[in-house]
Amino acid sequence: MNILNMDMNVVKKNLSIALKSITLNYRSWIMMMCAIIMLSNDILKSIFSFFFSVFLAYYFHVSCHYDSSYPFNSVHSYHHTHSNYISHVLQIILEFVAILSIVVINNTLNLNMVCIWSVIFFYIFYTTVHNINYSIYHVNHIHEHHHELLALNVGPDICDIIFNTKLNPETDMENTDHYINNIAASAVIVYIIQYFYYKNKTNRNVITSVFTFTYVVFCSILVVATCVIFMNDISKNTQHNLEFNEKLEELKKKLKREI
Questions:
Q1: Where are the domains of the chain?
Q2: CA-CA distance, 3 to 56, in Å (whole number)?
Q3: Each residue of 223-235: pLDDT tens digit?
Q4: Do the Cβ atoms of 133 and 139 come closer than 8 Å?
Q5: Around 208, how many Cα atoms within 13 Å sit in the side-chain half-sphere?
């Protein structure tokens, strides 16, 4: 994943493939850039904020697979081992907290370093693609490979190509035309929020309060879910070890009798 540790020839090759991917998917990229630019008067900050969010989402997702036994990875590990409503809801909440923490940190510390609308746009786009396009409609096999080979095809596809985590970068490039509806819907949602947010001070306070309340509730849900899943995994491992030890003792006794 670390581009600094890659051979320069590999870096050049990956960047070349990334350019081909952008060319192949020019429709979704053009639409994406138009949406991002329209989100803010500060175009450079808006673009920076979007790609910063892309990288953080990729990095966070990769880090979730470093050690599946690590407590904070429990919720995402559950997503990979279970396909049910709880799994999908927890994943959406996890993505909400992880990505929109950028907004919380930016506003809490009054950094003014990112365009919050670009970050919110990316979250809606990212979570709908992941949880609708891939998980419900299974639009292609790219993401399904990730569930088979955890360290590969992490997504977004362009990051996998650049950081060398793509399963078959040259022969299995993703067509991201399926992004287009997500981009359009995400942009409309953000524009509507923006409209009401800037309409008057009362709306701003209400929207800020709703977001803060939701963020706190979602963080609390994640803490509880992490504890429950992690403790359940420990219980299962303990039970497995007990059963293994019992079988081992039975085998030892049997061998003694035979001797």
A1: 3-222
A2: 15
A3: 999 999 877 865 5
A4: yes
A5: 11
